[in-house]
Amino acid sequence: MNETASPDSCHSSVELQIERVIVASLEQATVHVRCLRGPVRRGARFDRLGDSAKALDLTLTEVLVYGHRVPALDTGVTAFVTLRGEGVQHLTSAPPASRGQTIRGTNLAP
Description:
Radius of gyration: 13 Å
Oligomer: single chain
Number of helices: 0
């Protein structure tokens, strides 16, 4: 059975492709991303880094599209996002001609 999350479900699967890590500290990173599966809302939790076994527990706290704060990032759109939590040190910028890392997680209930 194919279980695709509906926009009205409590948790929906989301995915971001990391293009460039702009600023990173021990617990927070500002990252330029492309949304591969969305919409991704503020508060989304990310726990998977591509096919890696590295542990992540990141929360999306801010989304900036063309300099404007928005509540969600739609599929196909690029933005600057702020991620907070454990595992930010595992995020890396994409090398030229590369797809870059992806992070996967879920939107929490609004």
